[in-house]
């Protein structure tokens, strides 16, 4: 845990310095151009810890698959997700050391995340901090294939903001080659482009409540629809087990939604495109509520949860007076650090180690 806490505070520190030594930028939401040197240092710290981790959750499984596939293109066809299979074969030409796949994917994911934070985060040090403490960093080291897909879509948020749906759909299809579940983000496009807290949000909430109350009745139907797909085993597990996510996680995911509703008028004044991020956060909360039935459902939240690291700083920095904003900033720092410690120590229950 000492490694993770050291990474957290040092990456935050350099992110903070990137804001201190920033220059004016009228084209940025934060009106600043953050110092790239300090952002790079923060990136290196986070990426190094992720890249050289040892046996964190599914890390060992990915290392094993990487060695087994080697440079055999025939084995690519046997992989659930073609894009990830191609990536593993290409990396094997560079090095067949099992840590290669972990290093490469860590670099790829963090480049996509940090690039998006640089462009759209109101305070980049807070965005980096939340990326680690809200659980996104842990997810990026656990479900690697799916988080690559989520990071690609996260980086493509510019296309959603600008309404470039054709290019966005192409990016989603590309992401789906790493994890097929990414295809869900195509219909989501039409939901998140609507005005937040409108009648569509109300209908979605009502349908979600009804779905939650009748969830046990829906499981057999969902299982029949997904029969024969790569998710069949997960759905069978969903029907047979009772292993929902921790209720604390659900409350944590509710925080940005509550803040966004509280300051909904001010958010519109600050940035009229904020509706996209609010809608993503609402969808994320709905999924997490359903995940109380089974943790498998929370896997879908990969594509939504990460956008909270943009929404929370936006609300804290621009939607309150200076005194309240400062209070919320430090409260966020303390509370999310506590949640991060709780999640890693008591939920994952893993003694994090590096390979050296």
Automatic annotation (TrEMBL):
Keywords: Membrane, Transmembrane, Transmembrane helix. It comes from the Bacteria. The chain crosses the membrane at residues 38-57, 101-118, 130-161, 167-190, 202-223, 243-262, 274-294, 300-320, 327-348. This is EpsG family protein. It comes from Fredinandcohnia quinoae.
């Amino acid at each position: 845990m000492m490694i993770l806490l050291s990474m957290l505070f040092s990456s935050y520190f350099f992110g903070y310095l990137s804001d201190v030594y920033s220059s004016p930028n009228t084209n940025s939401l934060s009106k600043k151009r953050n110092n790239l040197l300090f952002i790079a240092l923060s990136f290196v710290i986070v990426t190094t810890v992720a890249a050289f981790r040892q046996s964190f959750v599914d890390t060992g499984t990915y290392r094993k698959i990487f060695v087994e596939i080697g440079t055999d293109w025939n084995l690519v066809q046997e992989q659930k997700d073609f894009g990830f299979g191609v990536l593993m074969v290409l990396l094997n030409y560079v090095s067949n050391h099992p840590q290669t796949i972990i290093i490469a994917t860590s670099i790829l994911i963090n480049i996509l995340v940090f690039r998006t934070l640089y462009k759209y985060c109101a305070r980049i040090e807070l965005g980096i901090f939340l990326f680690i403490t809200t659980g996104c960093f842990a997810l990026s080291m656990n479900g690697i294939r799916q988080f690559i897909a989520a990071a690609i879509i996260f980086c493509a948020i510019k296309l959603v903001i600008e309404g470039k749906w054709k290019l966005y759909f192409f990016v989603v299809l590309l992401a789906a080659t790493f994890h097929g579940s990414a295809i869900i983000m195509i219909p989501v496009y039409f939901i998140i482009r609507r005005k937040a807290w409108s009648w569509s949000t109300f209908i979605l909430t009502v349908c979600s409540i009804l779905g939650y109350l009748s969830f046990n009745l829906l499981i057999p139907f969902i299982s029949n629809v997904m029969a024969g797909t790569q998710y069949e085993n997960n759905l069978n597990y969903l029907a047979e087990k009772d292993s929902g996510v921790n209720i604390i996680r659900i409350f944590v995911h509710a925080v940005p939604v509550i803040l966004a509703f509280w300051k909904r008028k001010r958010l519109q004044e600050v940035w009229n495109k904020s509706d996209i991020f609010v809608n993503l956060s609402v969808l994320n909360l709905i999924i997490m509520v359903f995940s109380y039935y089974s943790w498998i459902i929370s896997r879908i939240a990969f594509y939504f949860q990460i956008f909270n690291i943009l929404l929370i700083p936006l609300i804290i920095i621009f939607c309150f007076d200076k005194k309240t904003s400062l209070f919320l900033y430090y409260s966020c720092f303390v509370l999310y650090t506590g949640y991060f410690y709780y999640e890693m120590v008591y939920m994952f229950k893993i003694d994090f180690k590096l390979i050296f």
